[in-house]
Amino acid sequence: MKLALATTFFGVALMRSTMMGQNQIVDLVLPTDNDALFSGGGPTFYQYVERNYNGAKSTPWEGGQYGFVRDPTGTSGGVIYTRFHEGIDIRALRRDAHGDPLDEVRAIADGRVVHTNLVPSYSNYGKYIVIEHRWDGSNYYSLYGHLSSIAVRPDDRVKRGRPIAVMGYTGTGLSQERAHLHLELDLMLSDRFEGWYNAFFKNDPNHNGIYNGMNLAGLDIARLYLALRKNPSLTIPDFIKTEEIFYKVTLPKSRHFELPKLYPWMLAGPERNEKSSWEISFARSGLPLKMGLSEKHVTQPELSYVKKGSIDNSYLSRDVISGRGANAHLTDYGRQLMRLLVYPD
């Protein structure tokens, strides 16, 4: 009897262990000692931006948040912000006698270092690190930008909270005073990014392989931190389901379409058949949210839906879409970006 109970207990423990391996909890820590996000955020957490709008200079901390928070533009519907910020900018807490930041940067979760950029001029991020994390069978990527020094190498395994770098102000347009950590949590769009990039951007070398920021679509990591505080068992797929669909694009059928393999939880509806095209739903940020079948036959990416509004969509979609209402369409850049998802077809 005792042996049977022990065997049963071992079986349950093994099953639980296996399930935990497949369903890892998204247990994140903040990457620096600045934890003001959990006490209101605002100017004590976010690094301000320098703004000059219609001759009025300001330093709004809101520009350090995730989302469309930069480059105000006047429209018939009022002032809107047209420039998207993929991550969050966390301000420094400590500086040396010369004013340089001393804040230690740590991995936000267990993972594997997949990329380090050691040459500041090779990216707007300056010196940066990308760490791969695996949750629920899919890979996600945390990115740490504007570093002054890097303490890890590609293929290093890192534990949650392990020091990986020191905050800095490397990258485009930063001063010592505005030193901060730029943090993202991203999905990858395609493993074939390098071939696509080299085909369309021949005069601008790609120094960062598939870990180029164009191939990484960021989610709202500050909102995720706060959501996980309320619900520690929250998964990223469930978190992303709360995002609003802003537009949909129908893609030609392609054996090179990788999103279903990279993020199978995005699949909605029945499995694909040979005659079907794909319809992908996107957030306003360009983050893919879900994908399903379309019976519409297309030979190139086509806009199939966009949220109704009175403002030209070029202001609202990172220039992926232009026009409004029935005249809305993918821009040349938008079509090119969508081709990445089915490249090289």
Characterise this structure:
The chain is an alpha+beta fold and 345 residues long. The chain folds into two domains: 36-228, Glucose Permease (Domain IIA) (Distorted Sandwich), CATH 2.70.70; 243-342, no CATH class. The chain is 16% helix and 30% strand. The chain is built from six helices and 19 strands. The chain has helices at 2-22, 193-200, 221-230, 236-240, 259-262, 332-339; strands at residues 51-53, 56-58, 67-75, 78-85, 88-91, 104-106, 111-117, 127-135, 138-150, 157-158, 163-167, 180-188, 216-218, 247-251, 277-282, 288-294, 302-306, 321-322, 329-330. Strands 5, 6, 7, 8, 9, 10, 11, 12 and 13 form a nine-stranded antiparallel β-sheet that branches. A four-stranded antiparallel β-sheet has the order 16-15-14-17, with helices on one face. It has a two-stranded antiparallel ribbon with strand order 1-2. Strand 15 (277-282) and strand 16 form a beta hairpin. The longest helix has 21 residues, at 2-22. The protein is globular. The relative contact order is 0.12. Mean pLDDT is 92; it is low at 1-22.
Biggest sheet layout: 9 strands, antiparallel
Number of strands: 19
Q: How would you classify the helix and strand content by structural class? A: alpha+beta
Sheet-strand content, in percent, reads 25-35%
CATH class of the largest domain: Mainly Beta
Shape: globular
CATH architecture of the largest domain: Distorted Sandwich
Q: Into which percent range does the helicity of residues fall?
A: 10-25%
Annotated CATH homologous superfamily of the largest domain: Glucose Permease (Domain IIA)
